[in-house]
Amino acid sequence: MEVKGKQEVEVITDVLCDICGDSTSGDGKISPQFAVLSANWGYGSEHDGEVYEVHFCESCFFSALVSIQEQRRSMMLATDGFEHNPKFGLILDRSCS
């Protein structure tokens, strides 16, 4: 026999960017569109047991990605091994282009 009733369930309605504080859902007009940088440091790490999670809006994510690429460029120039990659970090492109 089924017994039915209503239950209130918490759901994520928005994710705020940890960099700029902006909504990633367009103030509720769309589902949250965000990126996550995460780390879970384990045994042997200087940060053993620490867990990090940072949420980015689209704009802040791509600004951070440019910064990471610039850091990589600076490091690789010393070894003459740098080649610019406009798709740096991209593993899947589902665009209809």
Low-confidence stretches: none
Largest sheet: number of strands, sense, barrel closure: 2 strands, antiparallel
Order of helices and strands: EEH
pLDDT averaged residue by residue: 88
User: How many strands in all?
Assistant: 2
Strand order of the biggest β-sheet: 1-2
Share of residues in helices: 10-25%
Radius of gyration equals 20 Å
Strand content: 5-15%
The computed structural class is alpha+beta
* Global geometry: extended
Number of helices in the DSSP assignment: 1
Q: What is the CA–CA distance across the termini?
A: 52 Å
Describe what you observe in this structure.
With 97 residues, the protein is an alpha+beta fold. 21% of the residues lie in helices and 12% in strands. The chain contains one helix and two strands, in the order ββα. The protein has one helix at 58-77, and strands spanning 35-40, 51-56. It has a two-stranded antiparallel ribbon. The chain is extended and about 70 Å long. The mean pLDDT is 88.
Sequence-ordered SSE layout with sheet pairings:
Blueprint: E1 35-40, E2 51-56, H1 58-77
Antiparallel strand pairs: 1-2
